[in-house]
Amino acid sequence: MSRLHSYMSTSTARAGELGDRDATRGTSPLTEPVSIGFPHRIFVPEHYESGYAYPLLVWLHSDHSSEFEIDQVMPALSVRNYAGVALRGNRLSNRSSQLFRWGSTSTDYALNEECIFHAVEELCDAMSIDASRVFLGGFGKGATLAQWVALRNPERFAGVVACNGPFPTHKKALAQWKNARSLPVLAMQSADSNRFGVDQLIDMMKTAHLAGLNYRLMRFSATSSEPTPAALLGNPSSNDDAFEGSLEVEMLKAANRFMMGIVTGTPISLGCEPKVLDHVPWPQ
């Protein structure tokens, strides 16, 4: 039995725990049925046109969350620019039977990598997707996983958006580092993240610089007046080491500009709002 088949069988049995909500979010029907086979959430852009090839954002949620995180992410990002799909973490959270996390073993990483490629393939068959404009994004642990998958397979992604996710420093993340130099990555950090603190940010900057990776780094203060509600992960105390920080609307606005710049081939300023403390573009 393959890793993917094992995950599909196990996870599908748990899908009902989140209720009977439709797995597709959007305003228009898909061109073909989607048979991804494991828990996911699809976002169909408003005024979907089957004749237009949309960029696709694959979203990996934070720990102790679920694929429904995409319902808050996409409206803050753009409701028209992208199709989207969110995968569910392959491990149950220890906080709730309706929340999930990403496993940390080599097997977990390889399994989730395989699931991402399977989901992209199915979405490209079912929707009008530009296969050369597939972006990988994530929050917290999902952002670390997104970097790991994309850096190992840079030819398969147009770019990466990583929100409050430390650099993947293990499991051969830089096995394809020469090819990965051409992969655009926007890495963003909120100052209230306990999991992705200043030390981890400095380590990311050093690694990206030494490897010649195309990383752009932005640091946000924790005083944003527009946090994405469902991404706050409750109201943790200041000593909660697992708190992944705030996913802010300004982060997602910057992510939209970053991806649209790649899609259009036109450099777009990511913005320099007062909340942005640091913006460092690394050369290719």
Description:
The protein has 284 residues and is α/β, with parallel strands linked by helices. The protein has a single domain, classed as 3-Layer(aba) Sandwich (Rossmann fold), CATH 3.40.50. The protein is built from 7 helices and 11 strands. The strands form 2 sheets. The chain has a 9-stranded mixed beta sheet, with helices on both faces. The chain has a two-stranded antiparallel sheet with strand order 5-6. Helix 4 links the parallel strand 7 (129-139) and strand 8. Residues 1-22, 25-29, 224-240 and 273-284 have low confidence and may be disordered.
Topology:
Layout: H1 3-14, E1 24-25, E2 40-43, E3 54-60, H2 70-77, E4 83-87, E5 91-92, E6 100-101, H3 106-126, E7 129-139, H4 141-152, E8 159-163, H5 177-180, E9 185-190, H6 198-211, E10 215-220, H7 249-264, E11 276-281
Parallel strand pairs: 1-2, 3-4, 3-7, 7-8, 8-9, 9-10
Antiparallel strand pairs: 2-4, 5-6, 10-11
Helix coverage percent of residues?
A: 25-40%
Q: State the end-to-end distance.
A: 41 Å
Strand content bin: 15-25%
Number of domain modules: 1
Estimate the mean pLDDT confidence.
79
Number of DSSP-assigned strands: 11
CATH fold assignment: Rossmann fold
Bulk shape = globular
Main beta sheet strand tally, sense and closure: 9 strands, mixed
What's the CATH C level?
Alpha Beta
| Count of individual helical segments | 7
Annotated CATH homologous superfamily: Alpha/Beta hydrolase fold, catalytic domain
Alpha-beta content class: alpha/beta
Low-confidence spans: pLDDT under 50, at least 5 residues? 1-22, 25-29, 224-240, 273-284
CATH architecture: 3-Layer(aba) Sandwich
